[in-house]
Design a protein that fits this description.
Number of helices: 20
CATH architecture: Up-down Bundle
Number of strands: 0
Number of domains: 1
Structural class: mainly alpha
Largest sheet: none
Order of helices and strands: HHHHHHHHHHHHHHHHHHHH
Helix content: over 70%
CATH class: Mainly Alpha
Mean pLDDT: 75
Shape: globular
Length: 480
């Protein structure tokens, strides 16, 4: 039996949407090589620098929260187009900023775009992808995130190499850190043009009452299906054809938040509390604190980015074969162990003054291997799988609303981790800081083992019906 879906078209549409992930990753990574230069340019202290870095995450919380509900109201495509324009505006403004306040404003705008992209791309891909390959296609989002991170690291490394440092003058009498931000305008423009060519999500079109338009999109994606039956199937999971609303995350049986939303919140928060973005946002600063030069620290970021990309491909190969839950379990323990190793190395190394540690060659090598092994575990598990799960685990009638709440929580956790790391580094040191993140890796393992259900191989409608029945049974028992 041949494939019942148009492979090339599905991959093309998924790739166009996943470009939002590339920008999400690029925008996350570009700050990495500019931290010290921003501190000099804006004359900020460690707390101010931490806020400059973390401010983008405040915007991300807002963007993630409103993206789902706005996409339910106006469509996935128009909101993604607005997101692309926000990326362009933020990249330009971040580079022209002359002070912390101006910089923070532009970064918050960029953060809103990042938050929206983090929610909309996996939702759109999940809604147009056939169930047999949905996991792999949704993982494209994470692949593009890590490619974006890698390209930001490469761009920063190359630009700093041309000028001699992020604070040095490069082209047009502008400092290198400014060009690091402006480099993002190119991929953001490509994302904008790509979005003009893709169709709206068929599940949104059905929810909006545009059944004929939905049928046309479904015919091109799934040419062998009975379109009327598929549309009826989608309608059956939308609760009377009503458009999703934020209040739908509240159970009509108990008047409380659906249990599945709490599971989504746990996944979103724990992905961040294991400390991944400390390495991505503060990688250069971290390795300089451990005794590496600026050039070596930026090169280490490039190596880490390469590891991240390779193991995201491992996730793509495994996610629809092994399943979501096993990858999360293995990743949780692997991250915890590697963070524990780093905590021990950094905690036992002698201080080399107020700004760093003194690692001997053996300690330095072990720390580098452990850090990259930690990234590898994250890259084939919590990195992509968390976003895949959020895109597919919720029933159709409140997917957008649940994504809004979970997305805001994810970015809120990101903000807490990012802004607290400089304070932890200054007051507790690298060892204890990484010990805290290792503890949350253990918590993540038990959370997944107890609360997460497998969604491999099921259509969104099958997931919707199964979860609706499960929640109805559970919530009726609670109510009684």
């Amino acid at each position: 039996m041949g494939k019942s879906y148009n492979v090339s078209r599905v991959i093309l549409l998924s790739s166009a949407a996943a470009l939002g992930g590339f920008l999400f990753g690029f925008d996350s990574g570009v700050i990495n090589g500019t931290v010290d230069a921003l501190q000099l340019a804006f004359d900020s202290d460690s707390a101010g620098t931490g806020f400059n870095v973390a401010s983008v995450l405040l915007g991300s919380m807002v963007g993630a929260f409103f993206a789902g509900t706005l996409a339910d109201k106006f469509g996935r495509k128009p909101i993604m187009i607005a997101t692309a324009l926000a990326f362009i505006f933020s990249a330009w403004g971040s580079g022209i900023s002359s002070g912390s306040l101006e910089f923070v404003i532009y970064r918050i705008i960029g953060g809103m775009a990042m938050g929206a992209a983090s929610i909309l791309a996996p939702a759109y891909i999940s809604e147009i992808a056939p169930s047999k390959i949905r996991g792999r296609l949704a993982t494209l989002q994470q692949l593009m995130i890590v490619v974006g991170l890698f390209m930001a690291f490469m761009s920063n490394y190359w630009l700093a190499g041309l000028s001699g440092g992020a604070s040095e003058i490069l082209w047009g009498r502008f400092q290198t850190w400014q060009w690091m931000f402006w480099a993002e305008i190119v991929p953001a423009s490509i994302f904008f043009l790509s979005l003009l060519a893709i169709p709206e999500s068929p599940r949104y079109l059905v929810a909006a009452g545009k059944v004929e338009d939905a049928g046309e999109v479904l015919k091109k994606i799934l040419p062998s299906i009975n379109v009327k039956e598929k549309v009826a199937d989608i309608k059956s999971t939308l609760q009377g054809g009503m458009k999703p609303k934020l209040k739908n995350i509240i159970s009509s049986y108990t008047g409380k938040v659906h249990p599945l939303v709490w599971v989504g919140l746990g996944l979103a928060i724990l992905q961040q509390f294991t400390g991944i973005n400390v390495i991505f946002y503060y990688g250069a600063t971290l390795w300089k604190s451990a005794g590496f030069t600026e050039g070596d620290a930026l090169l280490q970021n490039v190596i880490s980015g390469s590891v991240n990309i390779f193991f995201t491909f491992v996730a793509i190969m495994l996610i629809d074969k092994v399943g979501r839950k096993p990858l999360l379990l293995v990743g949780s323990l692997g991250q915890a162990v590697m963070l524990g190793v780093m905590a021990y190395i950094f905690g036992s190394a002698p201080s080399a003054g107020p700004d760093g540690l003194s690692l001997n060659p053996t300690q330095g090598t072990i720390a580098l291997v452990a850090a990259n092994a930690y990234i590898a575990f994250f890259a084939f598990s919590w990195g992509p799988v968390m976003w895949v799960m959020l895109g597919e685990m919720f029933p159709n009638h409140y997917r957008g609303a649940a994504l809004a709440v979970c997305g805001m929580a994810q970015w809120g956790a990101n903000f807490i981790i990012t802004i607290s790391f400089p304070v932890l580094l200054a007051n507790l040191g690298l060892g204890i800081s990484y010990g805290i993140y290792a503890f949350f890796g253990v918590v993540a393992f038990f959370f997944v083992k107890v609360f997460v259900r497998e969604t491999k191989g099921l259509s969104l409608e099958e997931i919707s019906r199964a979860e609706a029945e499960n929640e109805k049974s559970t919530e009726l028992n609670i109510a009684n």
